[in-house]
User: Fold this.
Amino acid sequence: MKIAPLAEVKSKFSEYVNESHKGTVIVTKNGKATAVILGIHDDDELERIILSNSKRFISMMRASEKRILNKKVKTHEQIWGEIEK
Assistant:
């Protein structure tokens, strides 16, 4: 992990993007963390990052977990049994 002030990151952005592939870069403004530069190694990693920051996706996952915990979800066997009827 590397920490760098915004002014330096602005002047050497390409270098910090390259650095982000080795580890996270924390960008500071007036001494406080304000942004993160993450290196992306493949499309799956990009998708995980996007979904982990999506309020809508997180809300859907929590709702699904509640249904599972309240046993309001059918098993695969139940679904296929209904299809076969």
The chain has a mean pLDDT of 92. The longest strand covers residues 32-37. The longest helix spans residues 55-69. The radius of gyration is 21 Å.
